[in-house]
Amino acid sequence: MDTPISRAQTPNNASDDAAQRDTPDPPRRVVDDPIQTDATSYVVQPSPDDIEAITTRFRRLTGLRLCSWQAFVTAVCNTGKKDLFVLAPPGAGKTLAFLAPLIFNPHHIVVIICPLIALGSQHFKSCVALGISAIELTAKTATNANYKDIARCLFRVIIAPPEVANRDPRFVKLFKVNAFALRFYRVIADEVHCVEEWSDFRPQYLNFDLLLHWLPPRARFLCASATVTDALRARIMKTFRLQPKTTELIRLNNDCPNIFFAVRKMSGTPTNYNDLLSLLPSDPDLIAYDCPPPPKFMVFMPSKKECVEARLFLMHHLPLHSVGRICWFFSDCSEGYKNKMLQDLKDGKIWGMFCTDSAGMGIDVPDVRIVIQWGIKNVTFATLYQRIGRGGRDRSLQALALVYVENAHWPDDGKGKAPLKTSVKREAPDDEIPSKRVKIEEKEVR
Question: Where are the annotated segments for Disordered (predicted)?
Answer without folding.
Answer: 1-33, 411-446
